[in-house]
Write a structure and sequence with these properties.
CATH superfamily: Metal-dependent hydrolases
Number of domains: 1
Order of helices and strands: EHEHEHEHEHEHEHEHH
Structural class: alpha/beta
CATH class: Alpha Beta
Number of strands: 8
CATH architecture: Alpha-Beta Barrel
Largest sheet: 8 strands, parallel
Shape: globular
CATH topology: TIM Barrel
Strand order of the largest sheet: 1-2-3-4-5-6-7-8
Number of helices: 9
Length: 259
């Protein structure tokens, strides 16, 4: 394991990690995980994310409001653009649509998603897309709002192959989490095999979705190496090839992040 990895999506500001940054970053170094992106889910916690990013040169921030969250500030475009102007903020999101847990009229989600896309286009920073049980509407809105002008990544991908191909056709990358290591994820591994290596990222989504052999436990950025190992196996590549490619892909997509 000579090459450095990037955990392209985690939530180091969450309460599960309070006071634990020294041990987390130490284990990142031990496992050759060179960088991590701490993704925003509320504006109320954005300050905490910035504090982490400003204190650690190898941790980057994004700004956005998760589609599941109904409480707190619902930003307008100007607010997101202003927050994205910080040098530590490399992306807009996570944003998207999630119809899995919520019921009723989801127009508020769709409106918020459009706001994030416009902010990404205006700030010239890529999107971090979350979609669950809402792929058709997610792709439709992306096309209507010209999301391809901003680019970005479908994070923690769990949708079908057709959705992956449409995301790729729009110029987006596809990121795989620890789910790809789960025993029941054979279909997802087939999608990982299909996604070109130069369009692929790896992530943990920590503190959630710990990969095998840590499934069911608290996830952390150092565990992203298990995702990369699985991807290497699925694609019949070496670990070093996957690490090199996914790290290069990350810094090409999130072009304001510095190695």
């Amino acid at each position: 394991m000579s090459e450095l990895l990037v955990d392209s999506h985690c939530h180091l500001d969450f309460p599960e990690f309070a006071g634990r940054m020294p041990e987390l970053t130490a284990r990142m170094a031990e496992n050759r995980v060179g960088w991590a992106l701490c993704a925003g889910v509320t504006l109320e916690r954005h300050g905490a994310i910035l504090d982490i990013a400003r204190s650690h040169a190898n941790i980057f921030a994004s700004v956005g409001v998760h589609p599941d969250i109904q409480e707190g500030e619902d930003p307008d475009v100007d607010r997101l653009v202003a927050l994205a102007d910080d040098e530590n903020v490399v992306a807009i999101g996570e944003t998207g649509l999630d119809y899995y847990r919520l019921e009723g009229d989801m127009e508020w989600q769709r409106k918020r998603f459009r706001t994030h896309i416009e902010a990404a286009r205006r700030s010239h920073k890529p999107l971090i897309i979350h979609t669950r049980a809402a792929a058709a509407d997610t792709l439709r809105i992306m096309r209507e709002e010209r999301a391809e002008e901003a680019g970005g990544v479908f994070h923690c991908f769990t949708e079908d192959e057709a959705t992956a191909r449409q995301a790729l056709d729009m110029g987006f990358l596809v990121s795989f989490s620890g789910i790809v290591t789960f025993k029941n994820a054979a279909a997802l591994r087939e999608i990982a095999r299909m996604v070109p290596l130069d369009r692929l990222l790896v992530e943990t989504d920590a503190p959630y979705l710990a990969p095998v052999p840590f499934r069911g436990k608290l996830n952390e950025p150092s565990y992203v190496r298990h995702v990369a190992t699985e991807i290497a196996s699925v694609k019949s590549l070496s670990y070093e090839q996957v690490a090199t490619a996914t790290t290069d892909n990350f810094f090409r997509l999130f072009s304001s992040a510095t190695r």
